[in-house]
Write a structure and sequence with these properties.
By secondary structure, the protein is of the alpha/beta class. The chain contains 13 helices and 15 strands. It has helices spanning 11-22, 37-42, 55-65, 86-89, 91-111, 149-163, 191-197, 216-228, 245-255, 266-273, 275-282, 290-295, 305-313, and strands spanning 2-6, 26-31, 46-49, 69-72, 115-121, 133-134, 169-175, 177-179, 203-204, 210-211, 213-215, 233-237, 243-244, 263-264, 286-287. It has a seven-stranded parallel beta sheet with strand order 3-2-1-4-5-7-12, sandwiched between helices. Strands 6-15 form a two-stranded parallel sheet. Strands 8-11 form a two-stranded parallel sheet. The protein is globular and about 55 Å long. Bound molecules: NADP nicotinamide-adenine-dinucleotide phosphate.
């Protein structure tokens, strides 16, 4: 198939493009920068230069590439996360999830794509009530914290736009927290790992917030599967072991050779790191991966972050 990957140079894109090429697909990678053409060629793809926020540039890039499938992996998170200002830190990503999605869908419709695969997130968007592990049928948070409202709205917008595009097969992949090469949880240069090493990433409150992780290579494998087959819908791309912060954070610290994380009471964590950080430490929910295993025929090669973190650190 001919596949356009928007976000080919990102953490996921770099893993995804060579996998699609190895499967015999013809891939075009989209970037904003002329200077990244070479990097995309090294991944085995042709490059097209366009700003995803400019509808005319996107329309031209898609018309020139004539893809059968578009994979939307656009985010703007490489400057790092400032959880104190959650919506500000996600502002550009939120535009990519709203305007960027609209532009790619419109351009894809014009050339008659038969499938549109887009990135979402399994974690903070879930409702913070009920059990600790959510399926694709469980609701998103109806009352997100004020500090995260715009980012919630953008996730909801993307998911509704993609699933609602009745003229194509819309697939939403809710990835867990990425770890591994090129992510913030990489042992060398990973921003979150550096914070853990400096003991600036404490367990807040009871650390009862449940996180789901996914090795970046497993995320790419699942994306290949979802690009090739599977019905319209949402899939949680996470590992087998959702776990509370109080469990995974000390384990990750050990794996990267850091001292154990500090503990901060909830009020202090909220005061120093903000509402979003407090929520992520104490209230968020994890996700179940039964649906993509069943319907996409996908299995994570790193079924547990326990071994995954240790493997990455080694
Ligand atoms: N589920 C998760 O845990 C999750 C999800 C996403 C990201 N992250 C983390 O966030 C950090 C940064 O992610 P990243 O390395 O993927 O980088 P990023 O800066 O978020 O960029 C991702 C991709 O989006 C493209 N992009 C951004 N704005 C664009 C625009 N206006 N027009 C066209 N393309 C645009 C970039 O292309 P060009 O720069 O080439 O234009 C790049 O290919 C990493 O630590 C990653 O692990 C985590």
């Amino acid at each position: 198939m001919k596949i356009l990957v928007a976000g080919a140079t990102g953490a996921l894109g770099k893993q995804l493009v060579p996998r699609l090429v190895a499967r015999g697909h013809e891939v075009v990678g989209m970037t904003r920068s002329e200077s990244k053409r070479g990097a995309i060629a090294e991944l085995g793809a042709a490059a097209v230069v366009a700003d995803a926020l400019d509808p005319e540039q996107v329309a031209r890039a898609v018309a020139e590439s004539e893809p059968e499938v578009i994979v939307h992996q656009l985010t703007a998170l490489s400057a790092g996360l400032d959880l104190r200002h959650f919506d500000r830190t996600f502002a550009d990503t939120n535009r990519l999830r709203t305007e960027g999605t609209d532009h790619l869908l419109a351009a894809g419709r014009a050339v008659g794509i038969r499938r549109f695969v887009a990135q979402s997130y399994a974690g903070w968007p879930f409702a913070r009530t009920g059990g600790p592990v959510k399926t694709e049928d469980d609701p998103l948070d109806p009352t997100p914290p004020d500090a995260m409202r715009q980012s919630h709205d953008a996730i909801r917008y993307l998911e509704n736009a993609v699933i609602g595009a009745g003229w194509t097969e819309g697939v939403v992949l809710r990835y867990g927290g990425f770890y591994g090469p090129g992510t913030s949880l990489a042992p060398e240069g990973g921003e979150t790992v550096e914070m853990i090493r400096k003991r600036k990433f404490p367990v807040v409150g009871d650390g009862g917030g449940v996180w789901s992780f996914i090795h970046i290579e497993d995320a790419a494998d699942a994306t290949v599967a979802a690009t090739e087959h599977g019905a319209r819908g949402i899939y949680n791309i996470v590992d087998d072991e959702p776990a509370p912060v109080s469990e995974w954070l000390p384990d990750l610290a050990r794996a990267v050779g850091a001292r154990p994380p500090r503990h901060a009471p909830l009020w202090l964590g909220r005061m120093l790191a903000g509402e979003a950080a407090a929520v992520m430490m104490t209230e968020v929910r994890g996700a179940s991966n039964l649906k993509p295993k069943r319907e996409l025929g996908w299995e994570p090669k790193h079924p547990s972050w326990r071994d995954g973190f240790a493997g990455v650190a080694a």
